Target: Small ribosomal subunit biogenesis GTPase RsgA
Amino acid sequence: MPNGQIMKALSGFYYVRSEGNLYPCKGRGNFRKKKVTPLVGDYVTFETDVNDEGYILGVQERRNELIRPPIANVDQAIVVASVVEPEFKTFLLDRFLVLVESKSIQPIIVFTKTDLASEQQMDQMEQYKRDYEALGYVVIMGSVKVEQNMEMIIPHLRGKTSVVAGQSGVGKSSLLNALHPSLAIETNDISKSLGRGKHTTRHVELIELEEGLVADTPGFSSLELHDIELETLRDYFPELKHYGEQCKFRGCMHHKEPKCAVKEAVASGLISAYRYNNYMQFYEDIQNRKPRY
Ligand SMILES: Nc1nc2c(ncn2[C@@H]2O[C@H](COP(=O)(O)OP(=O)(O)OP(=O)(O)O)[C@@H](O)[C@H]2O)c(=O)[nH]1
Ligand SMILES: [Zn+2]
Model:
């Protein structure tokens, strides 16, 4: 029985890529009793009959799944933030990083629109770039408009399934188009001038670049920390995880506990105050979230 990965779903067919070929398949298998709906990105087993019609027989367990865009088994998120227009905010970047990490997706950070930034703004961004790199993140900074540094993303796509994520207007669609011009995804300037909504009837598709697979649609531009538990939030801040090992209390949340190594590291400048403040802000947001029934 061949194995493959679903590249797109359209009009009741799942297009399964296997050994360089694409097989249109319908669902027919045990997974349907378990109410599993195949998603783009799923690894499946399938068979083809004498008429070359394909049937999905089983869906392998997912590493993760996103709802918007509906896609499974994402390895990597290209988290896009613009230096200006809209102005860079660590708070928003950190939210994306937390969300992405909570899904076991590897983030790479891309700062865009350097062509619009003042020298002073660039100095500040260089500092942020160093900060995030020191935490272990890959950070690429440049401009889609003047084609600066965006090619540095390409080697990071190799062998992975990636999505693009980030706040509205930072340049996600522009970046996707730059990576793969034939995508021709509508960017803000076009859709605004035509006065119609964006991504209205688009289906999700994994695009095969030479290096790897990229979802052809920007993912989660707005997000809530809905599914994250208070106790796991600290795990998504690499520096809190690192210094937290030396806290007096094992379950230290780095909040009001005494002898907290994280708070000491913030006080001595080993942890950036803005990162800790963002952690506390998310902490409170999660704590205040209404129970869901
Ligand atoms: N000057 C400059 N403009 C850019 C750059 N990247 C994108 N833009 C512009 O920024 C605007 C928003 O870009 P989009 O690619 O539509 O942004 P998006 O993140 O996909 O936005 P949403 O679809 O709303 O989430 C467009 O007018 C782009 O032309 C850049 O590097 N430099
Ligand atoms: Zn602590």
